[in-house]
Write a structure and sequence with these properties.
Elements: E1 4-5, E2 10-11, E3 16-17, E4 22-23, E5 28-29, E6 34-35, E7 40-41, E8 46-47, E9 50-53, E10 58-59, E11 64-67, E12 80-83, E13 88-89, E14 94-96, E15 105-108, E16 113-114, E17 119-120, E18 125-126, E19 131-132, E20 137-138, E21 143-144, E22 149-150, E23 155-156, E24 161-162, E25 167-168, E26 173-174, E27 182-185, E28 190-194, H1 196-201, H2 206-220, H3 226-237, H4 244-252
Parallel strand pairs: 1-4, 2-5, 3-6, 4-7, 5-8, 6-9, 7-10, 8-11, 9-12, 10-13, 11-14, 12-15, 13-16, 14-17, 15-18, 16-19, 17-20, 18-21, 19-22, 20-23, 21-24, 22-25, 23-26, 25-27
Antiparallel strand pairs: 27-28
Helix pairs in contact: 2-3, 3-4
Length: about 260
Amino acid sequence: MATLIHPTALVDPAASIAEGVEIGAYSIVGPHVHIGEGTRLHAHVVIQGRTRIGRDNVFHPFCSIGGDPQDKKYAGEPTELVIGDRNTVREYATMNCGTVQDGGVTRLGNDNWIMAYVHVAHDCQVGNHTIMANNTALAGHVHIGDWAILGGFTGVHQFVRVGAHSFCGVHSSVLQDVPPFVLANGVPASPHGINSEGLRRRGYSSEAIMAIKRAYKTLYREGLTLEEARTSISAAANEVPELALLSDFLEAGGRGIIR
């Protein structure tokens, strides 16, 4: 499998470029970059910083990947951006390296669909199979769980966690943690049930979905304190393994959950 680099692309000789990589016209690749097998850069893509990219990713024109953190505390430390496999990153998306104030690494997992003008800030940790629609913006230190979907123009506050299988509607302003499975929408975002359609598509049984609905009612509809709801959901998770995802998320704490 041949590596194809357009003659107008600027690829630093120190960069590590695997077999089968395609680098389009006028793209720029810096010296500390590693690009895995089969990854494709369209025209005018910039990959810089200490950035490691896995295999079979696609970057569309004018992406800016691996730039310095937008953090005034950043003083040139050798922090990283790590991107997994089979991600699609659309036009004008931006992703920054981490900071030493956190783990020093921004991460994007596998099989994610990152649409145009999305921003993934320093120290974000994004899982697998997520979708971020156009103009989604993640502030620093945000954690996004597997299969989460963020609608267009969603903004996520720094240090917020968005749980697995959750869904944030268009123009959501996410200021607190969104638990797994929850539908969220609004300014600020508030809960609106569970993502039952998404769960069905991913093979969750009707019994598991009903258990998740009951856990949602425990969390939001029964007038319980968060600690009381957490205790009840933790007990239910002993009988329904799918609830462990929600129970563990609530136990971990954070900025407080949307209410």
